[in-house]
Design brief:
The chain is of the alpha/beta class. 47% of the residues lie in helices and 15% in strands. It has a single domain, classed as Rossmann fold. The radius of gyration is 16 Å and the shape is globular. The relative contact order is 0.19. Bound molecules: adenosine-5'-triphosphate (ATP) and magnesium ion. Monomer.
Length: 210
């Protein structure tokens, strides 16, 4: 299965990607995780990416396309993959089409903007393993501490309210047009993001059946 996950920032794409990875036994390739890893390591890519990400803007297409070209040619992608965060613009989608990589399906997880703002403003991320939690919806067992690895939970710099607004605006103008692009190709499937993670996963798996 070669799958693209589309959804607004904060719609729970990353969480569903993890579930789908387990279900299908294929890796999730998350652009956000790749970029944040590079920022942490202080690589050239990381330094460049940080200026865009902290402002809620997208990394330029040519750079993103190069990064994904490299990543998707690795051995672990041979039997399929789940793309979380790519493509995010029409130019990226067209570059993917022009490459030798064949995509099977594209899944959209629908969540209204108001819900997204509420979710992102309480989101916590583990500074070590990148697992996500929430101050209200997905509380860690011990406040401020990751259930998985014991790492410190932090608010991402791009989850600040002003940045969240611009990320949503960027999503609506740059990424939303991809829904029509893939629906015209007959590749789009849709599920609704719900309160319970497991309910969303059930709908997602059903949507991917046909
Ligand atoms: P979520 O945490 O819900 O996935 P998100 O999708 O906005 O929210 P990430 O996917 O983690 O966040 O991406 C973080 C930032 O990395 C984006 O705001 C953007 O600046 C940059 N980025 C990620 N993927 C791409 C891409 N395909 N093209 C350009 N920039 C990207
Ligand atoms: Mg993401």
């Amino acid at each position: 299965m070669r799958l693209i996950l589309l959804a607004a920032p904060g719609a729970g794409k990353g969480t569903q990607a993890e579930k789908l990875s387990e279900h299908f036994g294929i890796p999730t390739i998350s652009t956000g995780a790749i970029l944040r890893h590079n920022i942490q390591e202080g690589t050239e890519l990381g330094k460049l990416a940080k200026t865009y990400i902290d402002g809620g803007n997208l990394i330029p297409d040519d750079i993103m396309i190069q990064v994904m070209d490299d990543r998707l040619s690795k051995e672990d992608c041979k039997n399929g993959f789940i793309l979380d965060g790519f493509p995010r613009t029409l130019a990226q989608a067209e570059a993917l089409d022009a490459s030798s990589i064949q995509i099977d399906k594209v899944l959209n997880i629908e969540v209204p903007d108001e819900k997204i703002i509420a979710r992102l403003s309480g989101r916590l991320e583990c500074s070590q393993c990148a697992a996500t939690f929430h101050t209200e919806y997905r509380k860690p067992k011990v406040e401020g501490v990751c259930d998985n690895c014991g790492g410190k939970l932090v608010t991402r710099a791009d989850d600040k309210p002003e940045t969240v607004k611009s990320r949503l605006a960027v999503y609506h103008t740059q990424t939303e047009p991809l829904l029509k692009y893939y629906s015209d190709k007959g590749m789009l499937r849709t599920a609704h993001g719900q309160e319970e993670i497991a309910d969303t996963t059930a709908e997602v798996l059903k949507a991917l059946e046909d």
